[in-house]
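ESCALATION

Customer reports they have been waiting on this structure for their group meeting. Please prioritize. Original submission:
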Amino acid sequence: MNIEVFRELCLSMPLAEESFPFDEFTLVFKVMNKMFALLPLNDDPPRANLKADPERSIILREHHHQIIPGWHMNKKHWNTVYIEDGLEDDLIIDLVQHSYDLVVSKLPTKIRLELQDFQNNDD
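Update from on-call: job pushed to the front of the queue and completed.
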């Protein structure tokens, strides 16, 4: 998966937005102003940082050398995923969806319900 396809994948998530809040080389993808993916555009090889469930991450990292542990400045658990290093597209899609779902699950109930309505109307 290349960077542009990864970007399109992130933006396909309901109400996802992108910005450059840190510098001009790091795209951030958010839902309801909460970050679910970071994409440094100047990394070689390209990699993305995605929120992760710690237990699931351990299993994934045991089976895929392209996934390494990471931390964000707020000490939340993240995975660094090398997106052009032989990982199957389906796995990358799953990792992005998981990261997005983790963020959505932490949103207030009212916002989660509005998001579900948005998704249902979009279908």
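Sent to customer with the following note: The chain is about 40% helix and 25% strand.
Escalation resolved.
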